Amino acid sequence: MKVCKFGGTSLASAEQMQKVANIVMSDAERKIVVVSAPGKRFKEDTKVTDLLIALGDKALANEDVTDALQRVVSRYEQIANDLNLSKDVVNIIKDDLLSRLATKEEGEQKFSDLIKASGEDNNAKLFSYYLQSLGVDANYVDPKEAGLFVSKDYGNAQVLPEAYDHLYELRNRKGILIFPGFFGYTPDGELVTFSRGGSDITGSIVASAVDAELYENFTDVDSVFVANPNVVEDPVEIEELTYREMRELSYAGFSVFHDEALIPAFKKGVPVCIKNTNNPTAKGTMIVNERNYLINPIIGIASESGFSTIYVRKYLMNREVGFGRHLLEIIEDEGLSYEHMPSGIDDTSIILKGDQLTPEMEERIVARIKEDLDVDDVHVEHDFAMVMIVGEGMKEMVGIAAKATEALANVGVNIYMINQGSSEVSIVFGIIDADADKAVQELYNNFFVETKDPVA
Amino acid sequence: MKVCKFGGTSLASAEQMQKVANIVMSDAERKIVVVSAPGKRFKEDTKVTDLLIALGDKALANEDVTDALQRVVSRYEQIANDLNLSKDVVNIIKDDLLSRLATKEEGEQKFSDLIKASGEDNNAKLFSYYLQSLGVDANYVDPKEAGLFVSKDYGNAQVLPEAYDHLYELRNRKGILIFPGFFGYTPDGELVTFSRGGSDITGSIVASAVDAELYENFTDVDSVFVANPNVVEDPVEIEELTYREMRELSYAGFSVFHDEALIPAFKKGVPVCIKNTNNPTAKGTMIVNERNYLINPIIGIASESGFSTIYVRKYLMNREVGFGRHLLEIIEDEGLSYEHMPSGIDDTSIILKGDQLTPEMEERIVARIKEDLDVDDVHVEHDFAMVMIVGEGMKEMVGIAAKATEALANVGVNIYMINQGSSEVSIVFGIIDADADKAVQELYNNFFVETKDPVA
């Protein structure tokens, strides 16, 4: 049994829905289909989820919602028309939206989640209706009735353990099941959404719960690439990578996957395949537990800009038991999360996302570190990029760091920080923002250019 | 005005004392001479300080001290005889020791410091007596009378700020001043020693206090080498390096200098010269505030064995505010000090000296981390070496990391950790112990072999 999830662009129009229907019907193992809300049809288009947020905001501001509501309904209406479906389904969707809008007084966050979630919910109904019109035994699944129970954290629901047992029962249902992504219900029946992009989370939870042989995540790219196509021209495709590699890559500049989405599949060991709705015969990228690391010890190069560093120097710092802990306490106290803490003998740097800092906060932190820790020097520097090479194979291979640092030296990039933990899934280089693109390009040249074959 | 300090081997015998006298008399700027206790004359010899520790232990155990006392007195006696000095000075030393031994009841730590400090104190008297016998206007200085005030931390005295003002007055005294190293007095007159090797500290304090133009530290090597001569054959000499570079090197395997010794000189900016008593015309090694980094961005390669690593992995670790702080709290709580904490996205390693850990402690720490932090994996690994390349010039130079990692790859050394902070005085490579020597040798080959000129 396979669970497939289709993203917003895969379900944005009648034409896209036809592709999805063909994909679903072409493989009898595709039993459960998790759907997103209709996404963008073209670059300047607006996603239905964003239309819904605007509609909810207007309602809460007690403004007239007629136009905003019509914009949402029109999207479904156009798909239904183009698919030659009866007007009934559009009326069902419109009534559903009106009944949601009527609950405005029950609380802002609750209302907001309810409105947002309608995007996926109604699209699931529409798609199910469409499949039925093709003679397919398709059935919309209500997440409440199926028991997708979550915590009551509006906009950031966490799945509850019992949900997995409930959802396991989906295996026994007949036909193809159309499951709306993005939301679940508290045990007392209140709708709560996952964090944004949460249809990936739904798919991963359902795939894990029914013990799927494969979780197919359909999007609009043929595969994950070893480097950002906006930086490197026509980069090599990744055939297979591990959960941990995907996680490191998605962290730094690879936006294919929602960070948390993989957890349920990862914990259950369900393999994930990223495929293209517009080119379903392309092999896609497999995300697995283990791969053969010998062929390609390195699987990808990621880069992210906008880091700052808080540099602290104190003679004999390393003799002071508790220095690092005290420093991190100040960082935590200011509500900051940090990425790395490389250290020398007498100095240490805290590397963190720069957008967390304001000039006032910087001044206060510097003053606190100076005062509490009696340091010789403390200052903040900005505009660093973290460039990361990722691959589980580097652990067993000699010379990876040499190859990477040689690439950076080749193009005159100065390295301000290197961080390689004992896990060796990645090496991180801190360089200045302005050097990031040429660093990624040259790392790509050094690690991937000879082959040009898809890597696995 | 120069302050010179002579180590134990420089004052271990009459022959050595003659060399020191010649050095002192050959330069009229050498005004203040800080002396250690007599050290080893040959490999199997025992330092006077160690004889004194044995003597003190015997006294505290209420055993007969006659032999132990005689062994100490004999060392001074032989030097006095060989220098044709009168027996008076030996009697003065013997009486001094007897009067110290008589204070046994005043407290163990106090007594122990008093006995140990006699090694330097009596050697200063003896050397002063010898210089006088040569017609030199030499004067022993009593640190109490001169005002070298320290905190009452037995065996680990910290200099008090007022000491610098008192000692400044030494500038106005006549003749050559012979100052015993290793100890000072609390403001209420109690003798307390510095940590072991503390004559370097005395020299550095005095040089700073009198605002010396140079602090000469005489030992038994011509200079500091860029790598350990026990690993690399006939390594290049260092002509000049900075305080920070010396500090990083002395931390990891370079035992030339006592860690804390440089602080006073460093804070005042007094340059330090390391010279050889047995070859005083050799240029020695200068330790300065700034050097020209362009010629030799790297100044040395150090290595230390016996590190362990506590590896921790948890999915989405980096999202958990306070994770690093909490982890370090456990480490601190167990009384451990750590060296580095490299981190990936979902994992982090604590690298620390392995001799701090017992199997029971390891088990307890692993259990605590598992329980308190709910991690996916935590385990301890042993037998790592930290190899460090040091040089303030690497900050401005592209390609240093490439050159270093290339060297390690050349000889098949796998890198388990790289740590380079934003200060860039050093890069640390974590490798397995067994690879340390070949790593140092090849790094030496890559960075220093072309030149073979002394580096600065």
From TrEMBL, chains A, B:
Substrate binds at residues 49, 120. Coiled coil: none annotated. It catalyses: L-aspartate + ATP = 4-phospho-L-aspartate + ADP. Keywords: Amino-acid biosynthesis, ATP-binding, Diaminopimelate biosynthesis, Kinase, Lysine biosynthesis, Nucleotide-binding, Transferase. InterPro entries: AceGlu_kinase-like_sf, ACT-like_dom_sf, ACT_Aspartokinase, ACT_dom, AKIII_YclM_N, Asp/Glu/Uridylate_kinase, Asp_kin_monofn, Asp_kinase. GO terms for molecular function: aspartate kinase activity; ATP binding. Its EC number is 2.7.2.4. It comes from the Bacteria. Pathway: Amino-acid biosynthesis; L-lysine biosynthesis via DAP pathway; (S)-tetrahydrodipicolinate from L-aspartate: step 1/4; Amino-acid biosynthesis; L-threonine biosynthesis; L-threonine from L-aspartate: step 1/5; Amino-acid biosynthesis; L-methionine biosynthesis via de novo pathway; L-homoserine from L-aspartate: step 1/3. CDD domains: AAK_AKiii-YclM-BS, ACT_AKiii-YclM-BS_1, ACT_AKiii-YclM-BS_2. This is Aspartokinase.
